[in-house]
Amino acid sequence: MLSSTLLKVLSLGPLIIAISASPLNTLEKRTGSALLAIVPKANTCAGAPSPQECKTADEAAPFINQSFRTYGITTPGEAAAVIGIMAFESGDFKYNINHFPGTPGQGTRNMQYPQYNMKYAQSIPALKDKLAAVGSDPKAVLALLTANGEYDFGSGAWFLMTQCSDTVRAGLKTGSLAGWQSYITECIHTTATPDRQAYWERAAKAMGVPGN
Hints:
Elements: H1 4-11, H2 13-38, H3 57-71, H4 76-89, H5 114-122, H6 128-134, H7 138-146, H8 149-163, H9 166-174, H10 177-187, H11 194-206
Helix pairs in contact: 2-3, 2-11, 3-8, 4-8, 4-9, 4-11, 5-7, 9-10
């Protein structure tokens, strides 16, 4: 016979699931409505320099939300950092291949270097056979990722959750400028420039990050 405690837990099952999922549900709803406030130039792909690479905010939102589900991003601070860096690096979602200076194999929406694209591709079970076929060709590996919107927009969340330290992620969760700066300098390994910061500030405000 089931214990009374276990029966109570089972009876509350759907409620428990709903409560645990609520931060992600809230995050996803906010992403869809906020994305244009973060990336206003992503309202259209008309006249895009590389039309085949361009995605509008409406097209990007479902893929970004899927990446939050896949990689377990549930806080506004982490979400804002991921959206901000993808928007900045992809030129407002206009590119997913590095054209300037044109490093072979660099790309996806956060413009990962080829070595990270290989790690990322290796982490996706559905790409196992295709990856074996293309070998270590960085352009071919990138093509596997950019051909699928879920993988293309999933790179930012993957990078945060697998390549950044717990300390960096904890800093992002606070929503502080210092936390974001540590993410840029200690994990992305670049400079926290004003133009990068502007994307993060818009993302933090639109995603409801406390204090922004």
